[in-house]
Design goal:
Layout lengths: L1 H25 L8 H15 L14 H13 L3 H28 L2 H13 L1 H9 L3 H20 L6 H15 L3 H18 L5 H26 L6 H9 L10
Helix pairs in contact: 1-4, 1-5, 2-3, 2-4, 3-4, 4-5, 4-6, 4-7, 7-8, 7-9, 8-9, 8-10, 9-10
Keywords: Membrane, Transmembrane, Transmembrane helix
Protein name: Dolichyl-phosphate-mannose-protein mannosyltransferase
Organism: Victivallis vadensis
Length: 253
């Protein structure tokens, strides 16, 4: 049984690696960035690589993708656009692994899980995000990690393994898209409800999930606090709070 499991995960890892090789080669055929990449993500990555922190982040764009693409640009010497493409490529390929885990837990058949992984990697719409150097596949990775963490917890209510996976997934969702915090909050709420209403209640696990998620997103909360006076995950939430007359915690800049 152990040998079959190892072989299954080897196959699950091999598919994204092949996708990295094939799509990574095709990336160089697209020298023209999308509008969002040309006007936001590529300049931000370039600014981070050059140490210009003032222009490396924006309160609406989150910190994760600029940090990842900027780090790649700094390490490899690639320009901002190519670094964004590589970052998008890594997020796209990595997301295939938790998807495999989700389907394997739901159907219990590694062939179905491998087919789901293959269909994901073959989806042209998701590949386009990689060509254009966009951050959207990071949202898929965050969602898959969060769902896989919830399934792991539902399967074994005593396990702590679901906590870090769910926290990383929730943090990625929060730091990548404006709607991500809402999805992350829904997933965390499911985790808390299952934990509190289960036979093996463990509030420490809920607290650990909330604390770890908060720690992971703290750079984004801090930057938005410095910019807007509100410790929120995205600047649009600060605008909503302002319209409701809720005062900020600081003056912002």
């Amino acid at each position: 049984m152990r040998k079959h499991t190892d072989n299954a995960w080897f196959s699950a890892l091999l598919l994204p690696l092949c996708g990295l090789l094939v799509l990574g080669t095709l990336l160089w055929l697209n020298p023209i960035p999308a509008d969002d990449t040309a006007t936001r993500y590529a300049p931000m990555a370039q600014a981070l690589a050059e140490g210009d922190w003032l222009y490396a982040f924006h309160p609406h764009s989150g910190v994760f993708f600029p940090a990842l693409s900027g780090g790649i640009a700094w390490l490899t010497g690639l320009d901002g656009f190519r670094a964004c493409q590589v970052a998008a490529l890594l997020l796209w390929a990595t997301a295939a692994l938790p998807l495999y885990g989700i389907v394997l837990k739901l159907w219990g058949d590694r062939r179905i899980a491998l087919l789901a992984e293959l269909l994901y990697l073959a989806a042209s719409h998701l590949q386009r995000y990689v060509y254009d150097g966009l951050r959207d596949n990071g949202r898929s990775l965050g969602l898959f990690l969060l769902v896989l963490g919830l399934l792991m917890f539902y399967e074994s209510r005593r396990s702590w393994r679901a906590v870090p996976m769910s926290a990383v997934g929730a943090a990625l969702l929060t730091m990548l898209r404006v709607d991500g915090p809402l999805i992350a909050a829904a997933g965390i709420l499911c985790f808390i409800v299952w934990d509190v209403t289960g036979n093996h209640r463990n509030l420490l696990r809920c607290a650990a999930l909330l604390i770890l998620t908060t720690v992971l997103i703290s750079p984004q909360l801090y930057l938005n606090y410095r910019w807007s006076g509100y410790p929120v995950p995205n600047s649009r939430y600060a605008l909503i709070l302002e319209r409701f007359g809720i005062p900020g915690w600081g003056d912002g800049i």
